[in-house]
Specification:
Oligomer: single chain
Bound molecules: 6-phosphogluconic acid
Largest sheet: 8 strands, parallel
Distance between the termini: 15 Å
CATH class: Alpha Beta
Number of domains: 1
CATH topology: Rossmann fold
Structural class: alpha/beta
CATH architecture: 3-Layer(aba) Sandwich
Radius of gyration: 17 Å
Strand order of the largest sheet: 5-3-2-6-9-10-1-11
Order of helices and strands: EHEHEEHEHEEEHEHEHE
Length: about 260
């Protein structure tokens, strides 16, 4: 499946397009199947998307049919200012009726990170009914740092090499922090993986991701290669700049702000 790149005019257009894309994906999900599962990104880029999802007219999405997990979490309590759970709750979850049982947050994220990771993996395996197999998530939302990290898969860190576990604790020397993160095997098993990348400070990282020699130790986002699923880049023109999209990708300009550049 060819990578898709949707280019939006700015960060607001990116968030609006991401909302519409996600709502459409959820709407297409067969009602007889288990809830539509989404691994959420932390950081600042998706915040506006979460706000827009919280503002949807009642009934637009049957929130009973949505199950949320976190792509990564900081090693802090859920009430902490740096908590991804808190960010999602404040901008989205506290405004919509998603059943609590569908909100699968990292257990005790502020406790010992390895224990939190083990407990999260156990929870995911139990709730997705995958004692041994890798759960197939319907959607993984990812951000990307200007160092080409994604989730909490940072350059030069131990988690990059994980190929068996679904969730690990990962020490990030540059931040002097522990993180809990989904691993490449779980991310790459998903049906749809979407990067949300916004802002001029991401241009260099996007260029490395797409055009630097394959070197996931240095450019961790290169590890994201869904085995059978769709890989979508939702970018704004500030992040894209003059970075040429990969030859094999399908580029779509979203909205009438620029001439269509479909490959
Ligand atoms: C986190 C995220 C992380 C984030 C990138 C980009 O916990 O911070 O999961 O991977 O997506 O750091 O962050 P921004 O969107 O703030 O640039």
């Amino acid at each position: 499946m060819r990578d898709q790149i949707h280019v939006c005019e700015d960060s607001e257009a990116l968030a609006l397009h991401a909302r519409d894309w996600l709502v459409e994906l959820i709407g297409r999900h067969p009602s007889e199947q288990t809830p539509f599962s989404i691994a959420l990104s932390g950081g600042s880029t998706p915040k506006r998307l979460y706000q827009l999802l919280s503002e949807l007219p009642a009934g637009t999405v049957d929130w009973n049919r949505v199950r949320l997990i976190w792509g990564d979490e900081r090693n802090v309590p859920p009430s902490h200012a740096e908590s991804n759970f808190r960010m999602v709750k404040e901008n989205w979850l506290s405004h919509v009726p998603i059943p609590p049982e569908n909100i699968l947050a990292v257990p005790d994220p502020g406790g010992p990170p390895e224990l939190a990771a083990e407990n999260y993996e156990r929870l995911l395996r139990e709730r997705f009914g995958c004692p041994d197999q890798v759960p197939i998530l319907d959607c993984v939302l990812l951000g990307m740092g200007d160092d080409v990290h994604t989730a909490s898969l940072f350059p030069g860190t131990k988690a990059l090499g994980e190929r068996r576990r679904l969730v690990v604790a990962n020490h990030v020397p540059k931040l002097d922090r522990w993180r809990i993160t989904l691993t490449p095997p779980l991310i790459n098993a998903a049906r749809h993986v979407a990067f949300l990348i916004s802002g001029v400070n991401k241009q260099s990282a996007l260029s490395s991701l797409w055009h630097a020699p394959l070197d996931p130790e240095q450019f961790p986002s290169q590890l994201v290669r869904p085995a059978g699923g769709q890989l979508l880049f939702l970018v704004d023109q500030q992040a894209l700049g003059d970075v040429p999209p990969p030859e094999s990708s399908v580029v779509e300009v979203i909205g009438n702000w620029g001439s269509a550049r479909n490959n």
